[in-house]
């Protein structure tokens, strides 16, 4: 069975025969799937008034465990963002009441970002919607196929992460 990526890769390979079509097909499909996961996730988050970027930031704070806090630089690194972009994101989340920034009691030169009760509730309320969006797409795979895909993708992620 052929998909839209097959057609694009074939056209590209005709013009650039030295490019590996298998690599192009994998990358093209991964990008298409990532965009679709984001689109579906956002549709599920809309009912909670959350943008995907806000959900990801709240999730990062929540997964750290109580007291659900981190330095802005830690969040920026974890979410693979620039410090300036993180500052802008935190400004918006603070205005919404989802996070609070305060001076670090252990180092007055630093700032600590804490997930507020309102932010925790917004995140926790939207987890099911987010999960449902992912499961809907991945539901086309058998459990065995999901396991194989997860294992294969793990190898790629490990290649990206520092030792």
UniProtKB/TrEMBL annotation:
SMART domains: HTH_MARR (SM00347)
Region of interest (Disordered), residue spans: 123-145
UniProt keyword annotation of Iron present: no
Pfam families, sorted: MarR
Domain HTH marR-type: 23-158
Domain of life, per lineage: Bacteria
Family matches, as Gene3D superfamilies: Winged helix-like DNA-binding domain superfamily/Winged helix DNA-binding domain (1.10.10.10)
Keywords: DNA-binding, Transcription, Transcription regulation
Protein name: MarR family winged helix-turn-helix transcriptional regulator
Organism whose genome encodes this protein: Tenggerimyces flavus
């Amino acid at each position: 069975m052929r998909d839209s990526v097959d057609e694009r890769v074939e056209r590209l390979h005709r013009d650039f025969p030295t490019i590996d079509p298998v690599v192009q097909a994998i990358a093209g499909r991964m990008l298409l799937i990532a965009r679709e996961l984001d689109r579906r996730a956002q549709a599920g988050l809309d009912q909670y008034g959350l943008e995907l970027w806000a959900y990801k930031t709240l999730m990062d704070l929540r997964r750290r465990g109580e007291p659900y806090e981190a330095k802005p630089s830690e969040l920026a690194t974890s979410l693979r963002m620039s410090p300036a972009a993180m500052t802008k994101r935190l400004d918006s989340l603070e205005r919404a009441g989802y996070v609070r920034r305060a001076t670090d009691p252990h180092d007055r030169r630093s700032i600590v970002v804490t997930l507020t009760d309102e932010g925790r509730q917004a995140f926790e309320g939207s987890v099911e919607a987010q999960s449902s969006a992912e499961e809907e797409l991945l539901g086309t795979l058998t459990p065995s196929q999901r396991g194989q895909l997860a294992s294969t993708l793990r190898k790629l992620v490990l290649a990206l992460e520092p030792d």
